[in-house]
Task: inverse folding
C-alpha cells in the first residue's frame, strides 16, 4: 500500500522524516513514488532538464588510499599506474576542442571536471600550478576540481588549514568542487569500504568550509554495495542538514555501485533501485535545486528514465571516463550534445545546455 | 478488463504519461502472473548461416554468398554447439539463419532428423521468411512445408522477421523480405497444425505510431483465431553497422523531414512495451529484451508489463553485429530478476517451469 500520509505531506510542502524516507525505500509503489518526485522536480525546474558540455580529466590513478570499492586506483610503480603532466592535461583540453585528430566533432566545453588519486609525491604547489595553467590557457572554462578527500590530503601535504588550502586553490582558479568521496557517511560501512579515507564527518566539514569561502560544491552517495536503506537515509539527512546551514550544494548525485574488479565485489544495483533512489533523494533533499542522473554510472537508459522519477540533470558529454569504466561501466565514455538533447526530448522534457553554475548556454 | 481499441491505443501511445501507462501495464502483468515469478529459458541461438539474399537495410549480420566472411556451419559444428547447450542446462536451440540460395528443404529436413536422432532438445527454428522461401522454392504450400519440417523434427517457430507488419515500412527496411500478410499466414498455418510460435516487433526505425498499433492489432486478431502465440517480444532497432542508418541521409529523399536515424531511447522502449502488454490481452507472456536494453533496463521493464526475461543467449550473433553486446550469464539473469523484486524460474519453450531459483 502506498503510504498516503507521506504523499500528502510532500504535496503540502512538508519535510520527510527519517522514518518516512525509510518507508519509501521499503515500499513497492514505484509509480506513485515516481509521479510524486516528478511533480516536485517540475515545481523546481519547470519541465527543463539540463546537460553540460564538459570533459573529465583524471591527472593520476596513483593513490595512497586503496578503497575496496575502487577499481581505478594503483600504487606507485604498479602496472597500469599513470600520472599526467600539466602539459598533457592542457593538451587534452586543447584536443577535445579541436576536430583535428579526434573522433568527436569540435566542441566548446564550458567545464572541466578534475579528480584523481592522492599522489604520494606531488607537492601542493603542483595542484596550484595545474589550476593556474588551465585558467591561463582556457579562461572561459570553469574548473570543477578535487573532492573533499583530495582537499584534506592537500591541506596535510601543504601544511595549511582546510580554509587556507581552499582559498589558495580558489585564488589559482578553482571555481567549484565535485561531490565525490562522500560514499556512505555511516561509520561502520565506511570503515569496511574505505578505511583509509576521511570520515563522513570530515567530508561534511570540508564541504562546509568550501561553502563558507564561496565555493559551490556537489554531493554524492555511493549506494548498492553493503549499506542498508537506513544508511542511505542517514546520508541524505546529513546532507540536508548541512545544506540548511550553507546552501552551498548545487546538485545531489546518487552513484550506483559497480562491482567489477573491486575488492568487495557483489552485484550491480537494480534499475528499479536506481530509479527509487533518485526519486527518494528528490523528495528528501527539498533544499537541493538539482538531482543529477549521472549517465556514466546509471547508463544512458536508466538516466533517461530517471528524468521521469525526479532527476533534472544528466551531467555532460564527459569525453573520457576512467573511474567507473575500471569497475565495469556498461555506458559509453562520451555522448554528443545531440545525443543528450535527444534523450531529454524523448523523455518529454526540454533540454537546456547549462554552464557549471546552471546558467543556460546559448 | 475491457479491450483497448485502435484509436485508444494510438491516443495512449501519443500522449499517455509514461508512468501512468507503466502502472496500468504493471497491474495487468500482476493479474496475469500473480505469483511474481519471472521466467527465462536456457537456450542458444545457432545462426547456421549468415548468407542471405534478402539484404535487409536494417541488418548488420548478413553477407553475400561470395563475401570473405560468409559462412555455413557444418553439422558437426552445430552438434558441438548443442552439446555445449545441454551441458549448460539448456532445453532449446533457436535455429535461425539467412536465406541461403543453395540450401533446400532436403538440407533442413536432414539437419532436423540428425539433431533429433542425437538429442532430446526443443528445436525452435526457422522464422517465416525461411519457411516462405522453402515453400516457394519447392512449390509447396506453406502448410505442406511446415508439415514436412514438423515431421522431420521442428517443434516451434520463432517470431522473427515480423519487423513491423506494415508493407509501407517493409518496402524501406526489407523490400525483398516477405510481406506482412505472408508472415501472418505462416504463423496461422503453424498454429493450425499445432505448432506454437512467438511474435516479435522491431520498432524504432522508420515506422509511425500508427504502424506500431497496426502491428499489435494484426497479432491480436490472429491470436483471437488461433491462440498459438506463446509470447510477444518487442525490441528496438539497433542502427550500428546497418545500411539504413549509414545511407539514411541519401534514402531520406523519399522520407523528407527525418533527421539522422537514432536508436529508440529507453522511454520509447518502455512505452511500446507497456502498450504491448495492455493491447495484447490474449497473449500471456511479454518478454523484456535485455539483449537490446541491457540488464538494468530489462529489470525496469519487469515493472512496465514484461514477465519473462527471454533467453540466457549462450550465443547471440545478430544484435552483436550491430554493435551491441552485453556479457550476461545465467547467474546474472537470476540475480537481476531477484534484485528487481521477483522470483526467478527457468522455463521450457512452452512456459512450463522447470526449475525455481
Result:
Amino acid at each position: 500500500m502506498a503510504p498516503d500520509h507521506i504523499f500528502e505531506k510532500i504535496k503540502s510542502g512538508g519535510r520527510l522524516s527519517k522514518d518516512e524516507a525509510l518507508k519509501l525505500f521499503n515500499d513497492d509503489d514505484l509509480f506513485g513514488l515516481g509521479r510524486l518526485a516528478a511533480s516536485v522536480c517540475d515545481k523546481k525546474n519547470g519541465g527543463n532538464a539540463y546537460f553540460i558540455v564538459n570533459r573529465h580529466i583524471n591527472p593520476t590513478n596513483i593513490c595512497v588510499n586503496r578503497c575496496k570499492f575502487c577499481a581505478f586506483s594503483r600504487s606507485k610503480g604498479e602496472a597500469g599506474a599513470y600520472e599526467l603532466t600539466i602539459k598533457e592535461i592542457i593538451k587534452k583540453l586543447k584536443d577535445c576542442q579541436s576536430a583535428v585528430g579526434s573522433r568527436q566533432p569540435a566542441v566548446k566545453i564550458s567545464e572541466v571536471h578534475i579528480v584523481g588519486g592522492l599522489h604520494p609525491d606531488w607537492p601542493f604547489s603542483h595542484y596550484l600550478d595545474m589550476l593556474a595553467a588551465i585558467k591561463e590557457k582556457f579562461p572561459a572554462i570553469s574548473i570543477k576540481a578535487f573532492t573533499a578527500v583530495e582537499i584534506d590530503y592537500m591541506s596535510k601535504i601543504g601544511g595549511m588549514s582546510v580554509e587556507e588550502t581552499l582559498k589558495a586553490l580558489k585564488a589559482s582558479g578553482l571555481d567549484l568542487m565535485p561531490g565525490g568521496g562522500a560514499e556512505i557517511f555511516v561509520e561502520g560501512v565506511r570503515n569496511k569500504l574505505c578505511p583509509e579515507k576521511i570520515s563522513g564527518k570530515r567530508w561534511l566539514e570540508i564541504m562546509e568550509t568550501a561553502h563558507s569561502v564561496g565555493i559551490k560544491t556537489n554531493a554524492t552517495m555511493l549506494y548498492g554495495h553493503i549499506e542498508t536503506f537506513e544508511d542511505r537515509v542517514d546520508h541524505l539527512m546529513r546532507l540536508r542538514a548541512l545544506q540548511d546551514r550553507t546552501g552551498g550544494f548545487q546538485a545531489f548525485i546518487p552513484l550506483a555501485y559497480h562491482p567489477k574488479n573491486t575488492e568487495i565485489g557483489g552485484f550491480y544495483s537494480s534499475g528499479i533501485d536506481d530509479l527509487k533512489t533518485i526519486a527518494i533523494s528528490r523528495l528528501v533533499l527539498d533544499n537541493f535545486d538539482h538531482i543529477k542522473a549521472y549517465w556514466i554510472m546509471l547508463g544512458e537508459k536508466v538516466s533517461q528514465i530517471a528524468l521521469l522519477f525526479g532527476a533534472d540533470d544528466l551531467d555532460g558529454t564527459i569525453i573520457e571516463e576512467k573511474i567507473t569504466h575500471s569497475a565495469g561501466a556498461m555506458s559509453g565514455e562520451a555522448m554528443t550534445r545531440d545525443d543528450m538533447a535527444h534523450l531529454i526530448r524523448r523523455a518529454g522534457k526540454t533540454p537546456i545546455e547549462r554552464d557549471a553554475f546552471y546558467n543556460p548556454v546559448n | 478488463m475491457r479491450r483497448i481499441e485502435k484509436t485508444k491505443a494510438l491516443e495512449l501511445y501519443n500522449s499517455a504519461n509514461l508512468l501512468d501507462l507503466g502502472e496500468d501495464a504493471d497491474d495487468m502483468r500482476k493479474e496475469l502472473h500473480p505469483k511474481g515469478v519471472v521466467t527465462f529459458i536456457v537456450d542458444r541461438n545457432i545462426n547456421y548461416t549468415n548468407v542471405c539474399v534478402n539484404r535487409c537495410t536494417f541488418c548488420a549480420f548478413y553477407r553475400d554468398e561470395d563475401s570473405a566472411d560468409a559462412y555455413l556451419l557444418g553439422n558437426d559444428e552445430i552438434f558441438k554447439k548443442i552439446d555445449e547447450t545441454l551441458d549448460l542446462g539448456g532445453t532449446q536451440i533457436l535455429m535461425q539463419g539467412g536465406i541461403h540460395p543453395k540450401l533446400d528443404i532436403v538440407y533442413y529436413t536432414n539437419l532436423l532428423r540428425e539433431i533429433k536422432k542425437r538429442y532430446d532438445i526443443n528445436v525452435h527454428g526457422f522464422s517465416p521468411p525461411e519457411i516462405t522461401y522453402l515453400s516457394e522454392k519447392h512449390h509447396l504450400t506453406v502448410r505442406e512445408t511446415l508439415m514436412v519440417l514438423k515431421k522431420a523434427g521442428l517443434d516451434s517457430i520463432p517470431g522473427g522477421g515480423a519487423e513491423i507488419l506494415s508493407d509501407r515500412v517493409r518496402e524501406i527496411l526489407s523490400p525483398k523480405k516477405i510481406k506482412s500478410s505472408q508472415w501472418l499466414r505462416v504463423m496461422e498455418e503453424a498454429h493450425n497444425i499445432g505448432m506454437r510460435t512467438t511474435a516479435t516487433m522491431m520498432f524504432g526505425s522508420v515506422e509511425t505510431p500508427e504502424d506500431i498499433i497496426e502491428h499489435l492489432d494484426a497479432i491480436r486478431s490472429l491470436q483471437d483465431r488461433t491462440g498459438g502465440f506463446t509470447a510477444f517480444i518487442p525490441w528496438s532497432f539497433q542502427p550500428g553497422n546497418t545500411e539504413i542508418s549509414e545511407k539514411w541521409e541519401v534514402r531520406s529523399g523519399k522520407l523528407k523531414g527525418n533527421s539522422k536515424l537514432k536508436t529508440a531511447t529507453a522511454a520509447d522502449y518502455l512505452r511500446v512495451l507497456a502498450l504491448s502488454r495492455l493491447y495484447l490481452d490474449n497473449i500471456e507472456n511479454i518478454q523484456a529484451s535485455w539483449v537490446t536494453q541491457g540488464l538494468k533496463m530489462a529489470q525496469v521493464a519487469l515493472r512496465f508489463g514484461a514477465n519473462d526475461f527471454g533467453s540466457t543467449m549462450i550465443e547471440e550473433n545478430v544484435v552483436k553485429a550491430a554493435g551491441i553486446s552485453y556479457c550476461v550469464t545465467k547467474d546474472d539473469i537470476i540475480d537481476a530478476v531477484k534484485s528487481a523484486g521477483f522470483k526467478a524460474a527457468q522455463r521450457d519453450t512452452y512456459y512450463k517451469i522447470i526449475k525455481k531459483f
Q: What stands out?
A: The two ends of chain A are 46 Å apart (CA to CA).
